[in-house]
Predict the 3D structure of the following.
Amino acid sequence: MDLTDDIELSEDEEISVETVLKSVQCAWQNERLAPEILPHRNDMIECMLGQIQHMERNINKLPKTDLRACIHKMELSRIKFMICNYLKTRLHKIEKYCIPIIIAERQRIESGANYLTPAEFKYAQEYSLNMESHLKSAVLAKLPGTMETLEMSKLAVYPNLQSHVFLKANTAVKGVVLEEGLGDQDVEIELENGSQHILQYKPIAELVKNGKVLLV
Amino acid sequence: MDPYEIEFIGENRVVSIIPNFTYEKIYLICGEFGPFRAGLPMNVPLWLAVMLKQKQKCRMVPPDWMDIEVLENIKEEEKRSRFFTKMPNEHYMVEAKLILGNAPEDVPRASEIKTIIKDIWDIRMSKLRTSIDTLMKSGGNYGRLDHLTMMEINSVKPLLPEAMDELYRIEKMTQKTMPTSLNTSTFSQSGSSQNL
């Protein structure tokens, strides 16, 4: 009985957990498919994790063989899988594009529009420092003096924003300007609601971030 | 994305089952389902349906479109049309695979249905290959793919987007080296740039 009562309470919040779950799924999908790191959605993730903990406490009160417990556990495993995969994808991108991400993030923090959570930013900085000291101790220290300088900026790996992605429009968007490869003139296209396209990531990067399109 | 991840997303779709037990409403994070009444059809997410089926706690109700006549029509329409037709369901392949795989005895004429769905998939895939061929030959960097389902889109990844990336790179390179005409070094340059 506890189980149902508590869940009903959470529905009184302004946004239902159901909506949060859906947006977590969209965030996961976009993060998996976008070439660059996207703004974090920590608020939703925290909310979901809180919900999971809460549910788990309630499930433990139920007998192990209870059918409801099995169903709830299964659902929680599914959500946990999604959140883990989402966070891992972000960490993977942070490691790969560490240097440009840190530089861009410093500017973004000044304007208050940070993409990384504080924990992720700390991780990025530590990762970059560790990589630097590792390269120094493993290679550079053994080279003649003149070659010992290390320019981290030359090690930077940049995401390919020109890569092509598949997307589905969530609303109608007008005036998406595509950069033409050979021709000199740019082409402008319109994304109808619900239509699907393959195009370069760069012109639609903003639309992914503000949720007007979903990468598929 | 891996096909199993697409399947994971498809498993969130709601399908109909007939439970063989009675239980009160269940409040899941993804919504409330129930109450379960033995013998009465009700809606649950696909993952839950599969789970209950595996525990032999329900029968699956095949979706409306999982019917020989409907599917024959879709197949004909797909053959006739130059473009992709709208599928009855955004995740028809996932649903078909899971329902027919876990509960073939709940679907009348299951093996025939399986064949038709496979036929539809094959027609669409060959159409997709033809359109990709046309797209690549025209050197396009943009394409519209209405009515393709996620699983179908995923089946041409990473080939299509990467081929388009490559094409774009070559075009950029030729633009840069245009005055000296297109020569072999252009290609070796564009080839090496992918390692950046």
In short: Chain B has eight helices and six strands. The helical segments of chain B are 3-10, 46-54, 68-80, 92-102, 110-137, 150-155, 159-177, 184-193. The CA atoms of residues 51 and 168 of chain B lie 46 Å apart.
